[in-house]
Amino acid sequence: MLAQITVRNPKNEPVILMGDFNTTPEHPRLKLLEKEWVNTYAALNPKSTSGTFNGFHTDTPVNNCIDYIWVTRQAFIIHSSEIRAEKPNHQWLSDHYPVLSVVEIKP
Predict the structure, then answer these.
(1) Mean pLDDT, to the nearest integer, of 83-102?
(2) Of 21, 48, 59, 95, which sits most exposed with the smallest number of CB within 10 A?
């Protein structure tokens, strides 16, 4: 994935990478990603144990984070980031909580 970004972004423009990575922050692949990228949620919530994968279980704590928004290091200002653990109309929209981040490309 990182190789494809490099090929498709020869001018090294700012990039946002997001989605379900199906792995926790401790995984070696994400540790590798952290060298060049910033996890927006972790950057603003470093002590959080909140997760994104709920598996439609409402009776247990959600602490398994596998969904991320990453931005290229030094290219963005991260204004806010949160995991939206909500049930609109008392219905689960997904078995994952969304991550919402507000970022700005640095001038």
Answers:
(1) 88
(2) 59
Kindly report the number of other CB atoms within 10 A of residue 6's CB atom: 12
Helix, strand or coil, per DSSP, at residue 39: strand
Q: Which residues contact 3 (CB under 8 A, 6 or more apart)?
A: none
**pTM, rounded to two decimals:** 0.91
Return the minimum-mean-pLDDT range out of 28-32, 57-61, 72-76.
57-61
Residue 78 and residue 96: Cα distance in Å, rounded? 22
- Written as six digits, the tokens of 95 are 């078995």
72 residue type, one letter: T
For the stretch 29-56, what's the b/e string if a residue is b when 16 or more beta carbons lie within 10 angstroms of its beta carbon?
Answer: ebeebeeebbbbbbeeeeeeebbbbbee
SS3 95: coil
Contacts of 42 (CB under 8 A, 6+ apart): 25, 48
